[in-house]
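In this supplementary section we document a worked example of the pipeline. Step one takes a protein sequence of length 748 as its only input; no multiple sequence alignment statistics are reported here. Step two produces a three-dimensional model, which step three serialises into structure tokens for compact storage. The input and output of this example are shown verbatim.
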Amino acid sequence: MKPARHPRRLPILPTRALSRPMQSAVRAAAGLLFVILACFAFPTGGTPVGERYIVGEVQKDDVIAPFDFKILKDDTLLRRERSEAAAAVAPVFDWDGQAARRMTERFVSFSDEVESIREAGDLSSRAKELKLGQLSVQLTDAARDALLAPQGRDDVLRVFSDFLAGLVKTGVLDDRALERAGEPPIVTIRREAAESLFPAQQIPGVEQARVLAKRRGGEAAAELAWQFVEPNLRFNGDETEHLRRQARENVADFEGLVLEGERIVAAHDKITAEHARKLESLNYALAMRQRQAPVWRTQQSLLGRFLVALLLTGAFAAFLRLHRPRIFDDTSMIVLLAFSGAITLAGAALVLGALGLPSYFIPMTAAPILVAMMLDAPLAVFVTLTLALLVGALGGLGVPFILVAALTGFAAILSVRQLSRRRDFYRSILFISAAYVASLGAVALADAGTLHGFLQDSAAGITASFVSVVLVSFILPVIESLFSVTTDVSLLELADLNRPLLRRMMIEAPGTYHHSMVVGQLAEAAADAIGADPLLARVMAYYHDIGKIEKPGYFVENLTLGMKNRHEKLTPTMSCLILESHVKEGIDLAKKERLPQVLVDAIPEHHGTSLMSFFYHKALESDSSIDEQDYRYPGPKPRSKETAILMLADGVEAASRALIEPTPSRIRAVVKRILDARVNEGQLDLCNLTIEELARVRESFVRVLTGIFHGRVQYPQAASFEEPALPRSAAGRVRNGGDIPRKRPEAD
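The serialised model returned by step three reads:
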């Protein structure tokens, strides 16, 4: 197995700016927060008993009641009883004294006016009718005639006055309010502090009062009822709903009792709905006991959870310190790992707590996928084991869950090792789903489970695999941005030679483009030889010289035959400034194109603080007092193996192109000279390349360059393709390298 890759990043700036003690404190805080989250992520009511039993399955062991507990009612029965209890509550109507007084006062005032008109002896019958019509009460001619009739036994005013007095005393309901109350048989009338129950049929509504008035006093009384009768009983919806809610709550949730020591379900019996109800009741009783337990017992349980989470997290930290020291010392990576684990814990809390779903719905494969893509597969394996044990232990989910979580986590890690495009995530879903079905099938066979239970668990596992992969695909770009991590998916997208930036380089700076492609071949082969990241090294090479696009004519690889070197008319100082500017312009262009930070860092690091020797020596010819530091690149030096390889590949490719006869021995000599020079200059001091790895890099460079400059068969020269003969002097210069410098200027 190849050595594990280091993260494709440097620590993000906020953590790099912290002191070493502060970074240690941040890492410890991240671990502690993860442990605390693990303590509170799962339900605390004890192990869910009912969840382990499915109606129709055969029970393997006896289930005995550990204490007395009541049996919960069937849900359908409980809902019906609560509904009946609520319906039996009489709706509450409040007495409206103002409405009652208003009805009486308005009618008394009207009655007095009618009496004065009837008793006016100086008015004719016609004048009385006209005066009665001028009152505010709208009446028909027949009603006015009835009111102006001589007083007698059937006097309308007297009849309606008696009717209205009785009506006010009894009360008048609002017809629409009665409908809202559900047309109850009995209503509660609340008058001041007293409450009385009345049959709803004995209390008229407005419409019924008008009908009764017509029966008592004819059409004239009915018209008066239209004018003066209004509801004086107001429906109190809030109070009614409060009483009905109390009635529903007063319905007992239980029926029957299971005594301590009583067998709930016997071994080898098929679980029935009645068994499941008793098991659910036991689970509820356990939860209530847990809730009502003394504080010290609850804290004892919480302390146990804390210790389990702390021990597992500590074991993981020890693994990092021993086998991944660079990740352990990288504060941002510790935060990233804690964040990945927190995703799983949050999913477990949601599935087991808020949603109450079976445990296999937990997205256990999300964290392994993230770690495998962002860091390395062996570390992802340890993450899988740690999370499987943590969730299985704290959630009380048992060994089968831990086994399935571990196996599917391993499958998820394998499924993303060859991820080359974002649509390959769909293949990963299929792979993980197959792992769920296979592992759950094995567990079902081992535990003699039913086909129904296996199908239910498989459906949950397939759903969890889909959720995990979709979740990762959505949050991966955010994580890449926050933690400056670049995955294979992003790198493969950036390696597409049809990207606009690379096509622009091919058109505007074709020599630089060709140089970058060759450097990419060299860097990829060298990184693969020492166990570094070959894809990252190749993509770095593609973009390391993008700054030359701005001024391609000042770099020798872009000069075609017949073009003059522009540096011949410039001073060495100006040439150095132009060379140095391509680094800054490359960084600006990379940020403008939103390239990952790891590619931005490669642009200055592949030059390090190396000397622009051609222009430095040219400047020395005219001024021996110049400062060498003015002719060096600003750096920094390479800080990863990939950028160190890029520096070496860049120098080797440039030097090899200056060879007149690139034989294998000459190629080897050039490669060795470039590598030795970079080592002697101290350019590789920060990248942790060993001597053995440098030897492998050298051999890979020689092998690739020998393949590029391979010999060709000499064909007989056809007469029609004869080349014009060169003058003897020119031919001699070509053979001796007189027109082609053996050492290229640093301008490329």
